[in-house]
Design goal:
This protein has about 120 residues and is of the alpha+beta class. Helix content is about 40%, strand content about 20%. The chain is globular and about 45 Å long.
């Protein structure tokens, strides 16, 4: 019997997390995608602290109209803006076991447009 969708994503996620980890110089941009919303946070894994976070549930983003991909792009720009204010410029991207396609891709492109380098 094959793996369920969530088991498959957990395997991919652990495979990615073996390689990608956040340091204080280059923190990790972690993405979580639910059916309705998308969340992004920048994490320093050495201390286990979330430095910056943004989601589609934030007040300024939740009022925006558009498709889920357009809103994900806004979340990427918002997390990039907050990261630049916190003094973070280079990050490592953690797609969280999701395919780099659709909402995850538009969030990453929005973060790049916002000024983050990865």
């Amino acid at each position: 019997m094959g793996l369920s969708k969530t088991e498959r994503r957990q395997r991919i996620k652990s495979r990615i997390r073996k390689i990608v980890s956040g340091t204080s110089e280059r923190p990790r941009l972690a993405v979580y995608r639910s059916n309705k919303e998308i969340y992004a946070q920048i994490v320093d894994d050495t201390t286990g602290v979330t430095l910056v976070a943004a989601s589609s549930r934030d007040k300024e983003i939740s009022n925006a109209k558009g498709t889920k991909s357009e809103i994900a792009s806004l979340v990427g720009k918002a997390v990039a803006e907050k990261a630049l204010k916190a003094g973070l410029e280079t990050i490592s991207f953690d797609r969280g076991g999701y395919l780099y396609h659709g909402r995850v891709k538009s969030l990453a492109e929005g973060a790049r447009e916002g000024g983050l380098k990865f």
